[in-house]
Every structure is written in C-alpha cells, then in structure tokens.
Amino acid sequence: MTKKVTKAVVPVAGLGTRLLPVTKSVPKELLPIVDVPAIQVIVQECVKSGIEEVIFITSRGKGQITDHFDYSYELESILAERGKTQELEIVRNIGEMIRTVAVRQKKPLGLGHAILCAKDVVGDEPFIVLLPDDIIDAEVPGARQLLDVYEKYGQGVVSVMEVPDDEVDRYGIVDGEEWSDGLYRVRMLVEKPQFEEAPSNLAVIGRYVLPPIIFDYLEDVRADDTGEVQLTDALARLARERALVGYKFEGERHDIGDRIGLITANIAFGLKRPELRDRLQSYLREICD
To answer: With a threshold of 0.90, does the pTM exceed it?
Structure first.
C-alpha cells in the first residue's frame, strides 16, 4: 500500500542573486505576491494539498522566513487593543497554518545537498519537495496534482513542462516517452544541457514527490565542477533503478526568482483579487493603449 505523503521539504537557503539588490537584505522568499510573502503562497499550497508538516532548509540570514509562521504576540496584542479584528485574524491564521521545522544547510552545496539535509526529519517515508521560486497558479494546487499521481502509481513523480528551445540550458531536461496523456516514463535526466545535446524540451519544474531511497542516492552523488550536489543525478538513478514519472501539470507557472516572473505573478494574483481587479485592469489597459 502506498504511504500517505504528509511532509514537504522547502529549500530556502539560496542567495537570490537574480533579484539583487533587494535580496541583499530581504530573503527572496519574503518578497510579496501582492501583499502575501511568496513563501506563504507555497505553504498555502501545501496546506491545500493535505500536507501536515513543512521542513524549511534554511541558511544564515533566513530566520525571518520561519519567524513569519510563528506567533507574533506583540503585534497580536496591539491589533487586539486597536480593535483591528480582521487584521488580527489574518496574523493568527498564519501562526496556526501548519507545523514547521527548520534545518540549517551550513554550506551552499546545491539543491541535492539541501534536500539531503532533511533526511533525519523526513525519516523512512515519501515526501514532496516544493521549490519556492516556482509559483504554480492552478485550480487544483500543483502539489496536490503530483500527490494524486503518486497515490495512483506509487512511484516518484516530477512535474514537467515544455520550454522554448533557447531555454533548455536553464533546466534539468527529461528523456522519456509519453505513455498516457500528460504522463511520461522518465528514462534519463540531463542537467542544463546545451540545445544540441538536449534529449527533449521537457523541463523539470520545482515540484517532486520522492521515495526515501532518494536520500541514499544523494549520499552517493559526487559534487560537480562547482562543488554542488545535483538532485538531477539522484533522480536519474531513481529513473534507472526503480521508476520515475514525469507529470505535465495543469496551471500557470511563474518563476519568481526572475524579475519578469515576479512581476507576472503579481499581476496574475492581483487580477484574482475582487477589490483590486477593476483598478488593475484599468491601469493595464491605459498603459497598453
């Protein structure tokens, strides 16, 4: 019987260099999507998907992220004294949203190493990884879509999407065949290949449901020329020795580690807000005319 996935690993140790200078002093995960920190959007996706515990892989200077999901007694007291009941409820709901754990990645040794840092907390059970740079705007949460595939087939699952040919060198690329609508049998993965060497234009995006054996594979991965342990290498072994499903998720993905992606995410989520939609649409029409 397939074990239920109850834990999510969310790596937040990155430096956010693509968004400098703001990320010099503010963790990129706390940059707003309208008025909600991006990391809260990720955690809300976990909650809506049935996840019970979020494991943040942090680094020096990222304490504000875990603080955001803690209680803020001074702020709550002030809001209560001033009768700001709506704001008080918002703040309290964040503190009660989900159980969180923080694990420190002491050296920047890559995504694979970051996930390996969660081994003792995850234990011997499957788990889901969500990369906070990837915001997936979908009716059914992106994480829930992958969990449904995992529960049906009992195998590791990665989310995939087609990318333009000139962008394949920015992603891990899948080699495999489509055996059902939107589902792929992954045979191999290549990390950031040049276009001429890419087996396809099907890129792995930041959602993964992984079996616990992945930790053993990650321990065996040799660091690359940059000194990083690549998750792609462990996924490739999982595909060879067991099985790995690629799932073409439904929804719109915004790469908020990129300036344009951050802007489009704010526009898309702003248009979903009834109190903002009309004024935002009016402004967009005005500047586009």
So the answer is: yes
